[in-house]
Specification:
Blueprint (H helix, E strand, L loop, with lengths): L5 H4 L4 H23 L2 E8 L5 E5 L11 E18 L1 H6 L2 E6 L1 E13 L7 E5 L2 E13 L9 E11 L2 E6 L6 E17 L14 E14 L4 E11 L10 H4 L1 E16 L1
Antiparallel strand pairs: 1-2, 3-5, 3-13, 4-7, 5-6, 5-7, 6-9, 7-8, 8-10, 9-10, 10-11, 11-12, 12-13
Length: 267
């Protein structure tokens, strides 16, 4: 059966999707940043005539003097396969393959360790977690006649992730701070959900290694730090498990590609 795809209906491409993701992050960060700079009783801001306009407090003032910060995260991502057609497809044109972005949800823990003194901008982050991952590929037969001819194959897995990241953060400005982050993420499949044999013929390896990089914003509150983060992930392995079926024979390689919004909470 045909699978309707919102991105194709709106004629959106990869670069446009990344732009929309950045816009969504900005729309999320702006109100949070305003709330983090809440008024309290520490720093006074006076007008020209000396009248008191506002008072701003530095939340968690001793945060950077601790070398280790635990926390947790929740993530929402759009994941897909980056696919490459095989020689069989070029010669015989069995089917054409088209990768579809699908939503995924993840949760996990954070451990940040400062590298150097209190003013060091480098943080080593280890954030193991679990991700409920779905990736879909649409296959269109050579003699395409109707949308009912499209066959959708999906790989649905529960995976354990063990990313090791290096974080570079800017100087703190009152209760906000920008940062960049990058690193490698080993991934192991805990279980594969194959509820429908007809739509689960396409299979992927049980282990992967991805290159990840992104940007985020630290928002300091009185009791915790909230950090929305946008991260991009690119798989470094060919995950295709070859079988004697038309789907795997039409492909030469499949690798993971995702855009993820993290909400990190630390104390």
């Amino acid at each position: 059966m045909a699978t309707p795809h919102f991105r194709y209906q709106l004629h959106l491409h990869g670069s446009q999707l990344k732009g929309l993701a950045l816009l969504c992050l900005l729309l999320l960060v702006l109100p949070l940043g305003a709330a983090a700079q809440r008024k309290s009783s520490s720093r006074a801001n006076r007008g020209k005539n000396g009248t008191l306009k506002s008072i701003t407090v530095d939340n968690l003032p001793n945060y950077d003097f601790r070398w280790f910060h635990p926390g947790m995260y929740v993530s929402i991502s759009a994941s897909r396969f980056t696919i490459e057609q095989s020689a069989s497809y070029i010669q015989n044109q069995y089917v054409t393959a088209n990768s579809i972005s699908s939503p995924s949800l993840g949760v996990g823990f954070i451990g940040d360790a400062r590298l150097g003194g209190p003013l060091s901008p480098f943080i080593l982050r280890f954030s193991p977690g679990v991700n409920f991952l779905t990736r879909r590929v649409e296959f269109t037969p050579r003699n395409y006649h109707s949308p009912d001819s499209i066959v959708t194959q999906e790989v649905t897995s529960t995976v354990a992730q063990f990313p090791l990241m290096l974080k570079y953060q800017s100087d703190r400005r009152r209760n906000t701070r920008m940062y960049m982050i990058a690193g490698l993420n080993p991934i192991l499949t805990a279980s594969n959900r194959r509820s429908n044999p007809k739509s689960n013929q396409l299979q992927a390896l049980n282990s992967d290694l991805t290159l990840e990089y992104g940007v985020g914003l630290d928002l300091f509150y009185p009791l915790f730090k909230l950090a929305p983060e946008l991260r991009f992930s690119h798989g470094l392995r060919n995950l295709l498990v070859p079988h004697n079926d038309v789907f795997s024979q039409s492909l030469q390689s499949i690798s993971t590609n995702s855009v993820t919004l993290y909400l990190n909470i630390q104390n």
